[in-house]
Amino acid sequence: MRRSGVREAQRLSGIPVVLFPRSKSAPEGVPTAQLLNALRDLRVDFVLLAGYLKLIPGELVQAYPRSILNIHPSLLPAFGGKGYYGLKVHKAVIASGARYSGPTVHFVDEQFDTGRTLAQRVVPVLADDTPEQLAARVLHEEHHVYVDAVAALCEDRIVWREDGVPLIRTQTNPDAYA
C-alpha cells in the first residue's frame, strides 16, 4: 500500500499508524529500540507482516512471542527461506514438478520462514501453469487464509499443543479445530 493509502486508511479507521520511511542514512531499516518503543507506546498486541522481506530482529521476536504473523506464497517448509519471494517461489514450485502449492500463514521466529505454521491453503499446480498464473491463484487464497488466521489470533482461538504446534479452534465449536 502506498504511504498515501496507509494514511487514508488510518484516517478512516482511526487506527494509529507510524511510518518508518526508508532512508539512505538507515539502510538496514529502523533501529530495533525505536521500533519496540513505538510498538509499546501504541500498546500493540500483534505484528502482522505481508510482503516483508527482511529478517525480524530477535529482540522484536522475543518481545512479541507468538504474536507476529507472516504469510508466504508456498506450502512451507517447501520453497521457503532467504531468497524465496515473489515469482521466484512459483518458478521453483513449477520447476520441481510439485502438484500442489499454496500460501502458509506462520508465526515469525528469528529465521526466514521457519516459524510454526498456523494455517495453509492448498492450490493445485496445473500442467500448463505459468508462474504468473500460479501466483494469481495462490494470492487469491492468501487473501482468505490470512484474514481467517488474523481473526483467530484476535479472537483468542489459537490453542498451543504441548509440542508447540498451534491449532485454530472453530468459531462454532470450541472443542473442534479448523
TrEMBL record:
GO terms for cellular component: cytoplasm. Its EC number is 2.1.2.2. The keyword Transferase applies. It holds the Pfam family Formyl_trans_N. One of its GO terms (biological process) is 'de novo' IMP biosynthetic process. One of its GO terms (molecular function) is phosphoribosylglycinamide formyltransferase activity. Pathway: Purine metabolism; IMP biosynthesis via de novo pathway; N(2)-formyl-N(1)-(5-phospho-D-ribosyl)glycinamide from N(1)-(5-phospho-D-ribosyl)glycinamide (10-formyl THF route): step 1/1. This is phosphoribosylglycinamide formyltransferase 1.
